[in-house]
Design goal:
Helix content is about 65%, strand content about 10%. With about 325 residues, the chain is mainly alpha-helical.
Length: about 325
């Protein structure tokens, strides 16, 4: 996995979640707090999620095969989607069930110092993990808002870790609030309410992650800036006079397919066109290094056909006109 995949952020989150999960489970055994049990399962689910992200990154590095000629870059999208399912089913649904049971059958929290101490420790550890994810994300986020970064990032790992860590921090605060109110009032129902809120939060985050990774799985085009760079690189103003139409598709976070029909002069020789295509491919790769699979088809621009507007059943720009006799 490349540095942009956020490996450092994933490893930091994995280490934090494993330590936190162990401490939360110990606190649950001593205190009987349902919030602690839900949070320990949440941390275990998060640890599994980081394992899935690392596994997806490893599998994505496999070489292309005749059966998969474009490689395995989308493995990272698949495993990121699995993370959202795990977060929904294991984390969110379990927390909602546990919260419901606690509200229905509340009991007093025993040895209060265990859950409170563990929650404070967990907030510190998750804060460190979240800080690492933010720092790694800032290297690729640029001037985008955090919302736009999560929505438009082509590498799924950093948005997943960011949302997981954010959800974990908010969940810990909810758990601390639930335990605190249960201790202050002597009513264990508050512990159940805190657990229920944690479950709802995790499900909301899981739905957001599922929606974003589904879009990546379906296939997303290059970003606006990358498209502009590619368009500028294709046209040389000499042999390649314009772009009739172009399509881009991410084969993986760091691999882009570019397919374009380019306009050439009708009296150019085959050798001149072939040389122009090779030169254009070189310019594209220099402008956008992740453009690794490029198909350029020469054609003669037909202004009359293009003026008719887009036709989903025909190539934009229309077919080349028949040669004059």
């Amino acid at each position: 996995m490349s540095a942009s995949g956020g490996t450092k952020a994933i490893v930091a989150a994995l280490a934090a979640n494993l330590a936190i999960a162990a401490s939360k489970f110990v606190a649950f055994l001593f205190s009987g707090s349902s919030s602690m049990l839900a949070e320990s399962v949440h941390s275990l689910a998060d640890s599994g999620n980081q394992g899935l992200l690392l596994l997806g990154g490893k599998k994505a590095q496999r070489e292309a095969t005749p059966q998969h000629p474009f490689g395995y870059g989308r493995e990272r999208y698949i495993y990121a989607f699995l993370v959202s399912i795990v977060l929904f089913s294991v984390g969110g649904m379990f927390a909602i069930y546990e919260g419901y049971e606690k509200i229905k059958h509340p009991h007093e929290i025993e040895h209060w110092y265990w859950p409170v101490g563990v929650l404070v420790f967990a907030i510190i550890a998750e804060g460190f993990s979240f800080r690492t994810a933010i720092r790694e994300s800032n290297q690729t986020r640029g001037k985008q808002s955090w919302k736009d970064f999560v929505r438009h990032a082509k590498a799924p790992e950093l948005p997943v870790v960011l949302l997981e860590d954010f959800g974990a921090l908010v969940g810990l605060i909810l758990a601390l609030g639930g335990v605190g109110l249960a201790l202050a009032t002597g009513d264990g129902v508050w512990d159940g309410i805190g657990t229920l809120c944690i479950g709802i939060l995790l499900i909301v985050i899981a739905i957001v992650l599922a929606a974003e990774t589904k879009s990546l799985l379906l296939g997303e085009a290059a970003g606006i800036e990358e498209v502009r760079k590619i368009e500028a690189a294709i046209v040389d103003g000499d042999t390649v006079t314009g772009i009739i139409h172009m399509r881009t598709l991410h084969l993986g976070p760091e691999e882009l397919l570019v397919a374009a029909k380019i306009a050439v002069e009708h009296d150019d020789t085959a050798a001149e066109v072939a040389s122009a295509i090779n030169a254009a491919e070189s310019r594209i790769r220099e402008a956008v290094p992740i453009a690794r699979v490029i198909y350029l088809e020469p054609d003669i621009y037909n202004q009359g056909e293009a003026a008719k507007g887009p036709d989903p059943e025909a190539s934009p720009g229309g077919p080349a006109p028949a040669p004059a006799h």
